Records
---
Amino acid sequence: MTDPELLTLAHNWFTEKGWKPFAFQEEAWQAYLHGYHGLVNAPTGSGKTYSLVMPVLLEYIREQQETGISPGSKAKGLRAIWITPIKALAKEISNSAQRAVQGLDVDWQVKLRTGDTSPSEREKMKRNPPEFMITTPESLQLMLAQKGYEKFFKNLKTVVCDEWHELMGSKRGVQMELALSRLKTICPNLRVWGISATIGNMDEALQALLGSSLQKGKYRVIKSDIKKAIEVESVLPDDVEQLPWAGHLGTKLIDKVIPIIQKSKSTLIFTNTRSFAEIWYQKLLERSPDLAGIMAMHHGSISRELRDWVEEALHTEQLKAVVCTSSLDLGVDFRPVETIIQIGSPKGVARFMQRAGRSGHQPGALSKIYFVPTHSLELIEAAALRDAIANGVVEDRVPYIRSFDVLIQYLVTLAVSDGFRPDEIFQEVKGTFCYSSITEEEWRWLLDFITTGGAALTAYDEYRKVEVENGVYKVTNRRIAMRHRLSIGTIVSDSSLQVKYVSGKYIGTIEEWFIARLNPGDVFWFAGRNLELVRIKDMTVQVRKTKKKAKVVPSWQGGRMPLSSQMSVVLRKKLHEITIKDFDHDVELRFLQPLMDLQKKRSHLPTKNEFLVEYFKSTEGFHVLMYPFEGRAVHEGMAALLAYRIAKIIPITFSIAMNDYGFELLSDQEIPLYEAIETDVLSADNLWQDIQASINSVEMARRRFRDIASISGLVFKGYPGQQVKERHLQSSSQLFFDVFNDYESHNLLLLQAYEEVMEFQLEEARMRNALQRINKQKIIITEPDKPTPLAFPIMVDRLSREKLSSEKLEDRVRRMQLQFDQ
Amino acid sequence: MTYKVGLVSEEVTIRDNTFVLYPEKAVLWKTKGILLISDLHLGKVNHFRRSGIAVPHSPNDQNIERLIALLQEVKPERVLFMGDLFHSHYNQEWEVFGQVLKYFPAVSFELVMGNHDIMSDYQYLKHQLIIHREPLKVGSFIMSHEPIDEVPEACYNFAGHIHPGVHLRGKGRQGITLPCFYFSKDQSLLPAFGAFTGLYKIKPKVDDQIFVIVDNKVLKV
């Protein structure tokens, strides 16, 4: 059969279904059949699955014809692997693939293999693999840990990485890069494809996916031209004074939100943290009791069972509203959803668009998203988001490089199955994007680490993990092999406790530090209900339902995202528009005018060529505020840097606070601000050294090391029914960090922790750019009599971090606001 | 590298008895000449390495050097190990420890058993350790591995097991957790002696006395 004839098969089946292929789908079909690697750039819900499922099947039909083998005559083995980051999507993909398999009358099995697959089912698949397997990066690694994996994979023709933009920004992406590097050797004709939503760095996405195959030049990037129209509408109070100057919750606007929910068939309400989801759910029920029973909540700490129920109920149109977090960003489309509400700034364009896209599924339909500000300045972000969407601005996904923790795990995986020869694997690893810069010296260190434990061999040393036999590196100890298989993966769970009813029914998870503050009998609000703490037993929080009112709502750490770099650029543009009174595009900016006039009156409103610094004295002490608009992560680093540099002029101590717009240095003594500005405290010179000296980088690295220790197999979580021997192996990543920091400073895992801090946490590159930009701007220093609208939210943030009790804080905030209102 | 005993120690008086707190994480009961050392977790590194977890050897050396220096400096009559002397099943490190004890034949070495001390009696006898299976009462002081829930009136309890640490908070979001000696009205918790053993954050009450160990010094906070 010729290729046009093959494509006709696909067309016929599409016609039968009443579909018409999109241009990008046809393009992908042809490219695949011509033997290209590639990346399909298409949004969710656009038929991206069929852009690659079809040609994979067509190729098989072609092969059958060429070789003249009659269908079903002999085992074909594993032909295609489809990688998905979320299990929830696997089912949907399986259904689509199944449909096509039947439609084209191909004698293939389509099977899922995830963490939920039973051991017996896995065993069956090992002996009789399905032709089309849908799986996750972790499960693929587990297959590489099986004895005889080369044979298992030998018929493999293709690997498709779905939602590649999601994977590549995490260490799971690195896991995929490594697995692909191995599979390319085992299956020399392997084709690698990815499917990705639009991101700022598509080039890097392609490089990370294809690695060494990129140089051969046989690849295609296929873009769908499907664009979704998105409309952003801010929910505004009647009057700007009703919006607080600071805050994160936004419940002041609840009465404006309820009518939106009422008039829509089905609504998703996105909040930025799990804690806010709980609070919003509670307040909505209080304010609108008729929502009881038709409103639900969905976030990452609620049990899978409950979340599945919510998702199912959304599909079957039983729910009018769901309060959720990023847990519903991805996953299967919920067709009945008509309306999206976003509470508070999402801090990133891509995230906002993704959420907006959760509504309006009919082709050409408008996706409408309501933006509910939690404080007045956030309205500028609404305008910025609209601008960014209109101009096609999206964020980058930064791929991990040189993640030695993942590499160590991978090498042990290979040693656990059939063993490996270092020279062969080194070439493969060096061919990946992640490890393209790895040196021979580093490679030798890694080999030492897994064979001798990084120490010089001594007579008494009993270290054993990977052993070398005739040049082959392998694990022979069964206990070590088993422990390794149990700990494969790069997602490190929080140290959290399970919440269960006394009867044993599982509700979700909660972080230890939160529950530690409660006593038995205390009532807290979780998973949308009032729960009374009964006792804590064996890492389980036992609770019972109660009619008593909850006093507290749990929070989970790491909820708040900093403003993305792309967003901050647009934000500064909008601020400039306010300054020059160009309000034409955005009702939000017009709405904010009175507040901005106040800012101008008390201090100054900077144009894009100016950098504003405010300096004033209060009963608390001396305040310096600066507004780079670069996001809280960069501000944290910048504030510490500045504090360090000023403290070199005179001995002085600061308290530091920041938000996404700026930061504050507070001291009980006069700050030599003018002298500091003149001596270039904002310079980008010596940045690396000064950051290292100014920030508690040890503490930050220590936190980063948690994941690294777990992934590289230093910390073992244990499993049910283990022996004392295993129990005595439990330890914390902190201990390892300290011991390496004290005694083994060249340890690559330790160095990796420090690099990750600079790259991902402090965003050194971004800070450098910001400082260079500021140095070209005109610095305006004002000395306002009272805190300004820009300063206020930052100062409030400091109060919250200085651990005043929440009641006191509220009083304080109220007082400050009263003082301002004149 | 030889270990030098830190110069800055502290003294506390409890029920008219004087105790010296050493930054090496040991307590000397001055009047009785008894040195209290808790939670050494010897051999932990070996146990980990044997299971394929690459911890450097250095904490072992550090433990042994610190122990020797302490014994030479303090010259106790009795040494009471307050439990968790050895981390797990037997390994080579037990012999290293045995060698150390041999150098101090005049000292009586005793062990109040802890939950980690799971080796056979033979191993302890081999190094001439006196074993106490129950908490040991010396005068009105009760020495135990795990802290006693209710200390009998007129008694005072010294215990280990917890690996106490306290979190100190400073300006500008600075914070640090340090190992400590903890004294309440009827109980004291000793810091874990062993390197590579970790800390458990305790929440002191107002009347408690806390001494932290920082930079080889004992400081009252």
Note: Chain B has four helices and 16 strands.
---
Amino acid sequence: MSQGSIKKTVVNAVGDYKFGFHSSVDSVYTSPKGLSREVIAEISERKNEPAWMREFRLRAFDIFLEKPMPEWGADLSGIDFNNIHYYVQPQDSAKTRWEDVPTGIKDTFERLGIPEAERKFLSGAGAQFESEVIYHSLHESLSKKGVIFDSTDNALRLYPEIFQKYFGKVIPPTDNKFAALNSAVWSGGSFVYVPKGVHIELPLQAYFRINAENMGQFERTLIIADEGSSVHYIEGCTAPTYSSDSLHSAVVEVIALPGSRVQYSTIQNWSTNVYNLVTKRAVAYENAHMLWLDCNIGSKVTMKYPAVFLRGEGAKAEIHSFAFSGKGQHQDAGAKVIHLAPNTSSTIHARSISKDGGRATYRGLVKVPNGIKNTSSRVVCDALIMDSASRSDTYPTMDIKDDTASIAHEASVTRIDEATLFYLRSRGFDSATAAAMLVNGFATPIVKQLPMEYAVEMNRLIAIEMEGFSQ
Amino acid sequence: MIHPTPATTLPEIITILAGETRWYFVHEVARHSFILEKDATLYCVVLAHISDERAWDLSLSLEGAGSRAYIFGAVIMEEGARLDAQCSVQHSAPDTESHVSLRSALFADAVLTCRGIIGSKKGARGGKGAFHHKSIILGESAQVKTIPSLEICSDEMSAHHSATIDLLSPEQLWYAQSRGISLSDVHRLYYSGFLAHDAQGIPHPEIAENMRSYFSLQ
């Protein structure tokens, strides 16, 4: 299929969402709509998994059924669990050569610019289409150093010992309803292992694409940074715009062993018919440094609170969160840091913008149990509301049970500065350009943590969102 | 000199009439709702010394255009004391302003839960809301849970909140003790200065002076 044949079968207006196209790709297998023990068994069977994983999935399914829907946060009443395909297999196996990827899928990713990105500035790249990783590659020099960057399905097969040691240990199925759902039907995602002392200079990237309608994508990512190593993992995601909703419910577990540094960056740009309910958690051991950089532009509803459990003395957590909430969107994002060892520190910096009736919510937690000495935490949340129809909420919780903790939190909700807007307009910028400049400036403290190429793309996405703005 | 009156002697619901400016200077905590009409102004200074288990529920409803509320709270929590505090401020009219500043000092095993909510309704244009909660911990196993929330439904108002939880650093303690000051006196000096800090922002000299002396005498 050529790029020209990729059709815009968009039911509702795609608007300026340039990734809202749908590709005609025949899948190898699509599970029937709805979730049952049979569907889960079929997924496990098709993946030829060991018995323990099949049992793990079925146990998680029972937990999913037992747990109620969350009664806090965004409105999830629109999710119809019976109207979702939980597993769509687009091709037989993951490819390591881009040329071997089926044409229709390849065209989709070419159009999204993924292979180009890999050639230019990545150590490795993975691409997931529907439920399966369809391509994975790693720079040869890193393979020789013992770095593993593969699909999570392959890792289960190829590295069973390390896989079983860490899988599901940071986020067990009992954690929450959607972690249980993911544990029951997970498919795809990335597995990264960085050996002791190895520093991966350029980022690893994974790109997630939902293509089918009423699709659920449940990738599972597991990153293990061994002692003294470092890695930066970047993920991006898009989907077509349909009139009915899709569900993305990932689980990401990161283990930062002593002295390691992990940065996990997300540029979430799902179409506005996707419920994005993700559980992300890292455990940082002695003197490890974990950084979550979480940018949420797309989706209908996002509920995502990247967390760090500081388990080792001297460990450090940084969470930088940016959310843009436009018409019909609710970005309920935030951060959690649990200090479980002395002399640990954390920084949370969240910025959000709501526009055209969008709602942005910061929800956070900093917790210091009794007896954990000399911890410090600083939390800053800033929200910008662009119009009178939009809304911003801030719900930070600081639960401090030790008398040696030093904690600071500040938050603000403001509107765009009219004097600055006027100044820019008096210099010949139209309203939308001037507002985009101000909004980009507002986002800069978060976006600047991205590599330059991604920061440029983020600024462009923000500018697109600001098109048509007038005041 | 004006002395604080017991909070329990005030009615639970208090309406500040249009154009009226009213001062409340109370000690101890209770449950109170203030409703402010057009151009009404409320100043409320609350000083509390908690040694048992208490609840403090303060609700401010800025219903009239141009209404303003300024709340200053300072709380000492003795060893083992419990306080569940909630302060909610609702901006419902244009050009309203609220400023809530709470300071708390906790001795060993004291537990403080503090929820601060600033909310706005559509049409609260030009509104400004601020909530600040600062705590110092002066004894082992003291616990602070602070949840300063904002629920802002419009770009027409601005809101800020902040919270800090800090301790008397070993350096400060060592310096004071090296000058021959006992630990209990260091604590008293530290918390009396900390809790009375907001007195400088109170535009009523007598109440401000009383606030300063109240804590230095505790």
Note: The mean pLDDT of chain A is 88.
